[in-house]
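sorry to bug you again but im stuck and you know this stuff better than me. theres a chain ive been looking at and ive put its sequence and its fold in C-alpha cell form underneath. id like you to explain what the C-alpha cell line says about the fold, in plain words if possible. anything you notice is useful, everything is just below.
___
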Amino acid sequence: MPRPRSLTPDRLAAAALAVIDRDGLAALSMRTVAKELGMSPMGLYRYVADREELEGLVVDRVLDDVDTTPPPADAPWSDRIETMVRRLRDAVARHPEAVPLTLAHRHRAPGGLLWSETVLGILTEAGVDGARRVVALRALHGYVTGAIQLEHLGPLAGPGTTAIAALPEDRFPHLTRTARAAGEVDPDQEFFGGLRLLLRGLDD
C-alpha cells in the first residue's frame, strides 16, 4: 500500500519534536509519536523502523535550521567561530530537551556536518590543524551542548544557585560568594563569556 503523501519525514520529525518539547526526551516513543499524529503505532512503522530512526529525523530538523554559510573572511577567526557557535546555539536551544540527540546523531545530519565543515575551515585558516583541530572541534561541540543543558537544567537564576548561596559561609566561602554573584550574570553573559575563554585557549 503506498504511503500517504501527507506523512512526510518533516511531519514525522515535527510530531516527534512536539512530544519532546512538551513531555521531555524520555517520553519519545513510537507510541507517543503515533498518538501525536492521530494514527496507530503499527501504522507508524510503515514510515520509520524504530525510535532511533525517529531520533535521526528530529536531529535533521533541528540542525537544518542552522545557517552554515561561512562568516565574512575579513573578520578575526575567533569572531567567525563565535558567529558559527551562536547560530548553532540559537537552533539547538529552541529544543533543549533534544540536545542529547544531537550528540548521538550529528554525524548523519547534513546541517550538523555542514556546520562542522565550516568551523573546521575557519580553524584551518587560523593555523589550527592536526590533533589540535580535532580537540578544538570536539571542545566546541561539547561546550555548546553542555552549556545549553546546564542553562536548561540548572540555570544560574534557578533554585540550585539559591541553595548554594545559603550554604554555611565558613565552610564554603568561595562557593557561596560566587553563587551570590551569579545573580548578576545573564544567560548570554554566561554562554559567550565561557566561549571566549575557550577560544582564548585555542589562540595560545
